[in-house]
Amino acid sequence: TFIKEKYLSIDKVLELVNERLCNYKKGIVDTPYIPVVHIRDLLFLPSERKRKEKLWNEVQKFVSKNESRVRTEVQRISGQDFQVWKWIGIPLEPNLSLSSPGDQISSTASIYDSLTSFLKIYIGECSSSVFNEMVGNLIKEIKQLNLIIIQQDSFPNKFVVYLKMRSKEDAIQVFNHFNKSNKFGLPLKVKFMAEYFYNQRCK
């Protein structure tokens, strides 16, 4: 629905703005802010932008008026003035995932303390009916592993499933079992989410 897509887009905006500040602090980028139009272009393909104009206007209005951790500024970039968004709250840990195929997480992994019980699972591009079948198979197999799902939410148009697991340990088992696998004929990619981002998306 429009409302679900709106809040999914807002969630992505917050991730991008927060991630920009984190990357700035790490010395990866030169500025802590990101042009608003750049975020729009990251969210929507060129072929979608005209059709998504109403959605984008709603997202932009919400972030500018209702998100106290994001400040709107005007910055000169390459000789032109751009409206930018800058994260001014406490930097939040971006989504975490391991980088190499076959990587497994254990309690001794260096990132263990940063992990959470919240997961975002990307399913390869497919039709809504195939997506729903994939989600059903995924949930069934997770339960067969005796892992407990506290909450789930899925978005066929974005090929994404959000899961709140009983514990960090259950989430790690899901990651180890499914990340970068083709268990159901399509590639799966699992990421850990900060609790804040999960709650913003699934509240």
Automatic annotation (TrEMBL):
It comes from the Eukaryota. Residues 11-89 form the Man1/Src1-like C-terminal domain. The keyword Membrane applies. GO terms for molecular function: chromatin DNA binding. One of its GO terms (biological process) is negative regulation of BMP signaling pathway. InterPro entries: INM_ESCRT-Associated, Man1/Src1-like_C, MAN1_winged_helix_dom, RBD_domain_sf. Keywords: Membrane, Nucleus, Phosphoprotein, Transmembrane, Transmembrane helix. GO terms for cellular component: nuclear inner membrane. It is found in: Nucleus inner membrane. Pfam families: MSC. This is Inner nuclear membrane protein Man1 (Trinotate prediction). The lineage of its organism: Eukaryota, Metazoa, Cnidaria, Myxozoa, Myxosporea.
